[in-house]
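Hi all, posting the design record for the shared folder.

TITLE: backbone redesign
STEP: 1 of 1
STRUCTURE INPUT:
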């Protein structure tokens, strides 16, 4: 996914604390995805949200107390 984002001109901020994963995250500059590979990844977007709409994610909706710092 990191390579796909880069080729789409998007900024990427990978996150990991595992040294081996950090190395893998940086190992995206020595190859490019083909046009077919980019299209296949693009086709994964069905336009249907897999989770709740952001505006309904509230403490009241999910009944979770968020402690004050």
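Okay, here is what came back for every position:
SEQUENCE:
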């Amino acid at each position: 996914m990191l390579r796909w984002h880069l080729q789409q001109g998007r900024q990427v901020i990978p996150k990991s604390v595992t040294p081996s994963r950090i190395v893998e995250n940086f190992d995206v500059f020595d190859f490019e995805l083909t046009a077919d590979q980019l299209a296949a990844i693009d086709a994964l977007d069905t336009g249907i949200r897999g989770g709740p709409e952001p505006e309904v994610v509230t403490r009241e909706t999910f009944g979770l107390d968020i402690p004050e710092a």
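COMMENT: DSSP finds four helices and no strands in the chain.
Let me know if anyone wants the other runs.
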